């Protein structure tokens, strides 16, 4: 698995480009600012595409293969899967009788993946509440292009982010774009009605 996930479609969907044009016209802003607004909606959409982990890891029974490898099922009847920074899941075996209180049972950074998209929203100039404080190096928002052809590159470097998207691969990106366009257009419609 790649150590980072860059959400980028070349070119973006036509509906997304139409949204940028509408933002320019309705909000009376330049193309660079409209692209930033659209990227903000995309970041919010990606956040809703990310599953939130439970606060406690699910208990899994020690398997026959583990017993053959030397683990005593009477002493460690259960294990939990712990994802490391490289996105690989490791087994942590829990002592019998202490399963409910073992520190490995609890996910200390519960909500980290969803929060990572919120950090991007903040980097794009809009403040949103997140359950976890920003982690240095986990995300990157880069302005690209020039005044005539501006763009934003959104990078999520959390190793396991791809495994917890509600849909996978290109489909996850396409549905995120679609939701971003829909939500932004709804906001603009409401703004127009109130004007």
Give an overview of the whole structure.
With 195 residues, the protein is an alpha+beta fold. It has two domains: 5-52 and 110-194, no CATH class; 60-105, no CATH class. The protein is built from five helices and six strands. The strands form two sheets. A three-stranded antiparallel sheet has the order 1-6-5, covered by helices on one side. Strands 2-3-4 form a three-stranded antiparallel sheet, with no helix packed on it. The N and C termini lie far apart (48 Å).
How would you summarize what this structure contains?
It contains five helices and six strands. It has 195 residues and is of the alpha+beta class. The chain has two domains: 133 residues, no CATH class; 46 residues, no CATH class.
List keywords for this structure.
195 residues; alpha+beta; three-stranded antiparallel beta sheet; 5 helices; 6 strands; 15% strand; disordered N terminus
List the helices and strands and how they pair.
Blueprint: E1 5-7, H1 14-27, H2 31-48, E2 60-61, H3 64-68, E3 78-83, E4 89-94, H4 112-123, E5 139-144, E6 151-156, H5 169-194
Antiparallel strand pairs: 1-6, 2-3, 3-4, 5-6
Helix pairs in contact: 1-2, 1-5, 2-4, 2-5
